[in-house]
C-alpha cells in the first residue's frame, strides 16, 4: 500500500511535468480542472492511506534507503512519545536507536548499551524473521523488519505482552508441576520405604512370638528353654506394642489430634519413673544410666506428664540404642530467665555427622537405611518427640560429634513459678539419685489385701489379670459380662471392681452406671482399649475411679489398684469404730444363741410339712445369717426358698438337712 | 449431736449451720425384725436420726404419709403387700422420696425395674455395714445438694 501511495504521487507529478507544455496551448483550462480534480483524488487517497495506517493496531515505520525515517504511524509516535523532539522525520535509524537506549527505553540493553546497539544494527541491516523486544514496564513487542524492493525498510511491530506473559505463566506452571511431581514421587517413595520398613518391623517380632509360642507347645521342651522362649515372647510383644503405639501416635500427629493436658507433674516421681523404665534397658546392654538432677529444681511443674515422659523416654531409648559402651546421662537443670527446665540426654555412642543431624527430625528417616537394620526402631521416635515437644511448647535441640556421642536437649518453658511452690534444694528431697541404688529390673509385685471382682469377657485377659491379682495376694472373682458384674457386685462385698468396658449382654459403662445408681460406693476401675482423653473423661464421669489401658501394663495396674485399695480401706476403717464392732459381736452372739432354736423350728415345720411356715422361717434366716458372717447359711436358705417356691419339697427337705449341718458347723467355733 | 442431723461422719462435711433443723427421720420397712434391728444399728454408726419401722407394704405407706421421712429403706420381698406397690405409692405421695431398696434378689431385671421407678439405691441382702455406709454417703451428698439436711 505504501508503494502504491508513493508511486501514485510520483507518477502524477511526472505526468504533470511532461504533459504541461504539450497541452497548455490546447485546453489549459480543461487540464487545470483535471489537474485539480486529480490532486484532490491524490490528497484523498493519501489521507485514506494515512488513516488506514494509523488505524492499524501495530507500529509501522518506514525508513528510506539511507535509513532515515520516512513515516511513522500513530501507534509508533505514541510508543516513542518519550523520545519527544528527537522523533522527527529524517532522523536516522541508528540515532533513534541510540536516543532510545540513552533514555532508558530499552531494558534489554541496560549495562551493555554499545554491544546491544551493534547487535541491533546488524539485525536491522539484514532483517531475518521476528525479534522480541522488552520495553519499560514489563511490556513486550514483536518486531518484523522487511526490506522493500527500493531499498527502503518497513518496520512492523506489535504488542505481544499478554502472549509473553501467558507463555511465562505456562512455563512457570509447568516447572511448578514438575517440582510438585518430583516431591510427590519422593514422598511416596519415602512412604513406601517406610511401609516396607514397618512391615519388616511388625513381622520380625511377630515371627519370634509365633515361633516361640509354637516351640512351647511341644511337650519335650526343657524348662530353661521354656523360660527363654517366654522371655522372648514378652520382649518381642513389648517391642511390637511400641512399634504400633508409634504408628498410632504418628497418625494422630499427622491429623493434628495430639491432645495435651496441663496438670501438675511431680518432678521426682517423673524422674524416678524414667529411671525405672530406662535403667533396665541400659543394664541389658551393660551401660550405665545416670539421672543427674541439678538442684535447686521446682518440686512440681505444670505440663502433660504422659507426653513429657514419652519424649524423655524416646530420647533416652534412642541414646541407649546408639550407644555400645559407656554412659547415658539425663541431667535436669532449671533456668530462671526465662523460667524453663532443660532435660539433657547425653550419650557416649556413635554420634552423627552434620548431614545426618539435618535429617534427624524428619518422619520415616533414620540416619540411613543401614541404621534401621543395625539398630532397629521405627524411625519415628525423634519425629514424634519433636511434634510432641511442639505441642507442649517445648523445643528439642541436638548436638553431636560423629564417633563421640550426642546430646539432645528438651527445653520446656515453665509458667512463672506459682505462689508457695515447693523447691527441691537438698539431695534428700529427691527420691532419685545416682542409678546404682535402683534394682535394674525395677518392678516388685506389691503385697496387697482384698477381694476383687474382675468383669472381663476375654478368656485370655481373665487368666492374665487373675494371675496378676493372685500374684499380689488378692482374692479374685471373675465374671464374663455386665449383668453378672452388677448382680455379683451387689450381692457380695468386694474391695474393688475391675470393669471391662466392652462386654456382651451389658457393657461396662451401663454396668457402672447401674451400680452407681444403686448407691454402690466401692472403687470401680475401667479396663479399656479406648484411651483417648475424651473417653477417659467420660468413664470418670459415669463413676469410674480410674481407667486402665489395655493391654495392661503391670506396674501401672498395681499402682492404680494399690492406691484405690489403700484409700478405700483408710476411709472405711476410720468409720468402723470400736462401739460398732462391740455391737456386732453382741448381735452375732445373740444370733448364734437363737440359731439352734431357728433350726429346731425349721425341723418342726418340716415334720408338719407346713411349707408356708418353713418358707417364712427360711426367708428370715436367709436375710440375717449373711450379715453376721454366715454366708453359707444364707446361700442354702436362698436355695431352699427357691425349691419351696417351685414345689420341689423333696429337694428342699434334703437342703434343710444340709442347712442344719452347716448351722452346727457354724456354731462350733463360736461355742468353743 | 442430737439436735442436729449430722452427716459429718458419713460425708466429712461440717454439720449444718442452721440450728432450727429437726432430726433426720429414717423409715425402715422390712418384715424380718432382725433385719430392722441390724439395719438400725448399722445406720446409728453413721447418722443420728429418728427411726421408724414398718412390717409390710401397707405400714410402710402409712408411716411414710405420717412421718414424711427423709430416707426410706424398703424391702420389696415382704409378704402380704407387694413392696413395689408400696414404692409406687410412696413416690406418688412425694416424687422426691429418697427410697433405698433392700432385697433378697438382686437380678439385673429387678434392679433395673426399681431404678426405673426412681429409687436412689439398691442393697442386696445380706448386706454389709460398708454397703449401708456407702448408701448413706450418697444420701448425704444429695441431701447436702438439696439442703434437705436443714430443711427438716
Question: What does the model show?
Answer:
The complex is a heterodimer of chains A (672) and B (152). Chain A has 672 residues and is of the alpha/beta class. Helices cover 56% and strands 16% of the residues of chain A. Chain A is built from 20 helices and 19 strands. Chain A has helices at residues 2-55, 74-79, 93-102, 113-125, 161-217, 223-254, 267-284, 305-321, 354-358, 369-375, 381-392, 459-471, 482-491, 508-517, 533-541, 554-575, 578-608, 611-625, 631-645, 649-671, and strands spanning 59-63, 69-72, 130-135, 139-147, 153-159, 263-266, 288-293, 297-298, 300-303, 327-335, 340-346, 395-401, 405-413, 423-424, 451-455, 475-479, 496-500, 524-528, 546-549. Chain A has a five-stranded antiparallel sheet. In chain A, strands 7-10-11-13-12 form a five-stranded mixed sheet, with helices on one face. A five-stranded parallel sheet of chain A has the order 16-15-17-18-19, sandwiched between helices. In chain A, strand 3 and strand 4 form a beta hairpin. The longest helix of chain A is centred in the N-terminal third of the chain and has 57 residues, at 161-217. Chain B is of the alpha/beta class and 152 residues long. In chain B, 47% of the residues lie in helices and 17% in strands. Chain B has seven helices and five strands. Chain B has a five-stranded parallel sheet with strand order 2-1-3-4-5, sandwiched between helices. The two termini of chain B are 15 Å apart.
Main sheet summary of chain A: 5 strands, antiparallel
Shape of chain B: globular
Elements of chain B, N to C (H/E)? HEHEHEHEHEHH
Largest sheet of chain B, in brief, is: 5 strands, parallel
Number of helices of chain A: 20
Largest interface: A-B, 36 and 40 residues
Beta-strand content of chain A: 15-25%
Low-confidence stretches of chain A are 431-442, 574-579
Q: Write down the overall mean pLDDT of chain A.
A: 80
Which structural class should the secondary elements of chain A be placed in? alpha/beta
What is the terminal separation of chain B in angstroms? Answer: 15 Å
Shape of chain A: elongated
How many strands appear in the DSSP assignment of chain A?
A: 19
Kindly report the oligomeric state of this protein: heterodimer
Distance between the termini of chain A: 143 Å
Low-confidence stretches of chain B: 1-20, 146-152
| CA-atom Rg of chain B in angstroms | 14 Å
